[in-house]
Recover the amino acids of this structure.
């Protein structure tokens, strides 16, 4: 009787392990995106974030404007005050060869995760890596 119970317990444990393995496999695209975001150092241009979602920087900037996240001042996108103090972006300043000074908004990793949650929960937009039927290249 004891060996039957042990074998039944092992069978249940194997079934549980298989179920957990399946859940991990299903969650792996999301985990991969989070891991990539959290591992990436520094700041990221909106064009690279837009590529994660299969869209252009222009389209993503417009969407973020329409959602009340950012506005354009001159040639630079800036966050509205309610988001500005959260550390989502940093301004980068540079000078062209002819002496023209420019500023660009770059997104921090915290900002990328904010955009991920915003796009997923408010718009139903997932990064390409998480879309059903997509295979990561």
């Amino acid at each position: 009787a004891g060996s039957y119970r042990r074998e039944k317990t092992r069978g249940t444990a194997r079934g549980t392990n298989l179920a957990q393995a399946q859940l991990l496999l299903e969650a792996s695209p999301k985990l991969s995106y989070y891991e990539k975001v959290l591992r990436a150092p520094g700041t990221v241009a909106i064009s690279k974030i837009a590529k994660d979602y299969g869209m252009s920087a222009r389209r993503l900037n417009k969407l973020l404007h329409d959602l009340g996240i950012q506005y354009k001042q001159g040639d630079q996108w800036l966050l509205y005050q309610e988001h500005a103090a959260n550390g989502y972006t940093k301004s980068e300043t540079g000078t062209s060869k002819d002496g023209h000074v420019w500023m660009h908004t770059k997104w921090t990793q915290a900002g990328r995760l904010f955009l991920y949650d915003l796009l997923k929960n408010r718009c139903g937009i997932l990064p390409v890596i998480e879309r059903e039927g997509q295979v990561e290249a």
Remarks:
- The chain has a mean pLDDT of 82.
- The beta strands are 70-73, 76-79, 89-95, 101-107.
